[in-house]
Amino acid sequence: MILIMRFPEGKLKALTLSYDDGVRQDRRLIEILDKHAIKATFNINSGCFEEKSDFEGKSGRMSAQETEKLFKNSSHEVAVHGLDHAYDDLLHNNLMANEIIQDRKNIEQLTGRIVRGMAYPFGTFNDRLVDCLKVCGIAYSRTVISSHKFDMPKEWLRLEPTCHHSDKTLFELCDSFLNLQPELPQMFYLWGHSYEFDRCVENNNWGIIEKFAEKMGGHEDIWYATNIDIYDYTKAYEALQFSTDQSMVYNPTSTDVWFSLGVWGEVKVHCVKAGKILKIK
User: Using N-to-C axis directions, what is the helix angle for 93-111 and 64-71, rounded to 10°?
Assistant: First the structure.
């Protein structure tokens, strides 16, 4: 018997994005993503907020006030990016922990949400920093190492995205993902900085993300989720408890979970509701 995790509604494909630094261009990016019902995670350096709020400003880092207004009731995730965007992996242990904990604390107070995600500042990390994240309650952290693949993460604290939005193979990867008929769960993960869209006006960089969103949004076989949505769902699946003969499964979590069970060619999709026992056969 083959047991396979499926995303909500039995889907096998997920799309997520991750954008760094908390800059004013995030507002335009969110407008584009919301238009196509695509979700993203925004990684914030709360020690780098602009002191004065300028709602007319188009570039530069946002103030705390702007950040609160943009994200407090948003469907997008806000995550840690280090208090001061330091090379966290080079810091002494106590300073390293402070960069993470204080940033997490500030964002939680600002948004009213529990923050458990992160992206590494400058993309640099080592084993010591990874161990520190575990102590600081960080569930996952994104690197800048492009996998050019859609495999589900094996190490959530060394999370490799599919590619950056400037990758020359971006739309080839999009076509490959859209054409997939996978037997295992697959995830397309795009990352970048929204200020980069303003840097090459002649190349219409905003047109890249607009084309991406239009191309990738609105597909019934794709689950559109934040980074923490996918992490939490995966952990809910891993928490399922099966009887020895696979005739029953108990879901101890607060999340409905989908999975398929069977042999190749005779696979049946099941959903076990939160807190319930499902009799499979």
Answer: 60
